[in-house]
Amino acid sequence: MKKFSKLASLALAGVMALSLAACSGDNGSTGTTTEKTETTVTEDTTEVTDAADTTEATTEPAGDLGLKAGFICLHDENSTYDLNFINAAKEACDRLGVECIIKTNIPEGQECYDAAVDLVDSGCDFVFADSFGHEDFMIEAAKEFPEIQFSHATGTKAHTENLANFHNAFACIYDGRYLAGIAAGMKLNEMIEAGTITADQAKMGYVGAFTYAEVISGYTSFYLGAKSVCPTVTMEVTFTGSWYDETAEKTAAQTLIDDGCVLISQHADSMGAPTACETAGVPDVSYNGSTGAACPNTFIVSSRINWEPYFEYCLNAIANGEAIDTDWCGTLNDGSVALTELGGAAAEGTQDAIDEAAAKLMRGEIHVFDTATFTVDGKAVESYMADVDTDADYTPDHETVVEGDYGDKYIDESGEGLRSAPFFSLNIDGITLLDTAF
Amino acid sequence: MMKTKKHEPLLHIVKRDSMSYKKAVLIRIAAIVAALVLCAIITMVVTGQNPISVYGTMGIGAFGTARKTWVTFQNVSILLLISLALTPAFKMRFWNIGGEGQVLMGGLAAAAVMLKLGDKIPNPLLIALMTLAAILAGGIWSVIPALFKAKWNTNETLSTLMMNYIATQLVAFFTVLWEMPKGSGKIGIINQNTNAGWLPNIGGEFIGSKYLLTIIVAALITAAMFIYLAFSKHGYEIAVVGESVNTARYVGIKVEKVIIRTVFLSGAICGIVGLLLVGGINHTLTTTMAGGQGFTAVMVSWLAKFNPIIMIFASLLIVFLSRGAGEVATNFSLNQSFSDILTGIILFFIIGCEFFIRYKITFRRGGHKK
Fold this sequence. Notes:
The complex is a heterodimer.
Chain A: H1 2-24, E1 68-72, H2 80-96, E2 99-103, H3 110-121, E3 126-129, H4 135-144, E4 149-153, H5 158-161, E5 166-171, H6 173-194, E6 203-208, H7 213-229, E7 234-239, H8 246-258, E8 263-267, H9 272-280, E9 284-287, E10 299-305, H10 308-319, E11 327-330, E12 337-339, H11 350-363, E13 385-386, E14 398-399, E15 401-403, E16 409-411, E17 431-435
Parallel strand pairs in A: 1-2, 1-3, 3-4, 4-5, 5-11, 6-7, 6-8, 7-17, 8-9, 9-10
Antiparallel strand pairs in A: 10-12, 13-14, 15-16
Helix pairs in contact in A: 2-10, 3-4, 6-7, 6-11, 8-9
Chain B: E1 11-15, H1 21-47, H2 51-63, H3 66-91, H4 99-117, H5 123-152, H6 156-177, H7 209-231, H8 233-243, H9 245-250, H10 255-282, H11 293-303, H12 308-331, H13 336-358, E2 359-363
Antiparallel strand pairs in B: 1-2
Helix pairs in contact in B: 1-13, 2-3, 2-12, 3-7, 3-8, 3-10, 3-11, 3-12, 4-5, 4-6, 4-10, 4-11, 5-6, 5-10, 7-8, 8-10, 11-12, 12-13
């Protein structure tokens, strides 16, 4: 629509200039320029494959719980990120017999507030929004409707906002990324053994969206996972400044490949990076769901947050009149952190390595941000005061280095009393940031 | 010995001298009906949905509840205001397609005042400053291409268009500068806890109070613009300059002055839209805040033949289509793109029929007479 009206209005402006100048003919200078309208070609986006059935979202009859849930998504099914939410929402609602309304393509502005209150108007008991920028607008809606429960993924404000009906949720996705990193490290080892690269050439590339804690925590855990099996690995990270920009993500991946990166991963939501990898024949670890169908030759594995346990938890809590946690963080144990099936590009023995590490993570035997495994500016991290209660000056307010049951010291990314959304933003050694404009 | 034969093309496009008002209205109605029929066929073929229920859903999307109706009218007001802003410039044949950028600059200025002076000065003064800043920012953004046009006769279509991109990037720059939290690329709601610099809700505790201010501003400016263009000396000067610059000079109108004054007015109203979007509606600043409406407004203004009253209906049509489209996407589990296809078809027919109102096609007469 926007694109269409832009083109149409440009064309109209041209027609106006031409036709009006032509009929009066007193001022020849205006009508002579022919305009070239700019068209943007968006490429076909291929949907990720672990999609559940995509029909029938809205008109489920109210079943067992007799509830109605509304979901607000930034984009639609073409975004791997939103598709992951949409599938989980449908699945949870189907299972619990909850009527489900999904609103897609809701921008991070007043439209989110409008969508949220509209969902309340249409009888929703639970309203959920999936994008970081939705948070403030969800808070406005939550203030207005204290009897309705509002939840927001990736947000940071619930624990300081003190609203009983506004909640944040996230998952320990760093565990998932760490495991995906192990798959990447195994692949690098395979390449080193085959003699395609030397140990020093084991350089990975990572396409990130923003220089924001969620992304930093994500790529650092991915890197640490790879490093746990391939000690010589290094990584370059570049940022696109958008959560969904297919062209930018594709270009970024290509830049990294040209720069000598032999394996790519991403934290941005389009198919840009995976398709660039498939074209270039470079192995890829994707995010939010399997890209194996579109990229059969290069797909290794993908980590994703499975939101279904959270949705079920919230809906059950509402049905039973129980309070929903202010900050809820899903784990490997409850199935919120998940890995897809391995793709054809995965190295031999990857599944075993992942399973072994996952078991240790679940037992608390190892931790992703173990301070013995990385350095910052050449020094080990003894203490890390993080800005958990976000404020304008980014004042550090919580000590986050803790000691585990097995005596290891680690940064507790989603510890007790801290927020569910990641806050880790250290720049560790071995990772080079190429472009930090965002 | 060659036999020459004069070739006559199959059809001619001939400009119509004039068409009766009734006939023109009939053509437009026919176009809308044809568009709806085509949309219905496409809906059935592609999705298997009943087209009548799809259209019904569009109505519900725009007017289904009191709140939906208020939001629809708020959106109409914004689109109408931008269309009104562009109109005086268009009447002068100054093709200002920089509405998008002028709105963004107005919003940027308002947001800057709101962020930097919020809670430091009394709220009425803060809002007055925001208004002033927004008007100046929008005005200046449009006057820059106008100065070039007046001095060197540069093509304003191109320069106003290019200014949009500069404005978008400026907003992007300040978004990153003022982002919260770090690295997120989002400003978030400005002064969410103090509401400093938020434009007031009107009418107390009823559902429309959030939306009323924008609607009132739009109504006032529509009336003012109608009077300004139709009855004021300025309006007359604009019309004369638009008809013929030479005539205007001959009768003693200072053409450069009229161009700059009118274009400033155009940008200033866009600036007010920026103020309403930042201070009254979104309470934040994003690069996509204007949402392409600076371009849609060109279409609205043109469809309405620069008449502010008809513009109300043109804006309503476009907002109705887009709000209805959103509802269709939600209710039928269709991708948003499908609704955009329908909207596109309808607009295409409406714009296309203007061609048949201005021109007629005559076919070659059968048989060649010597």
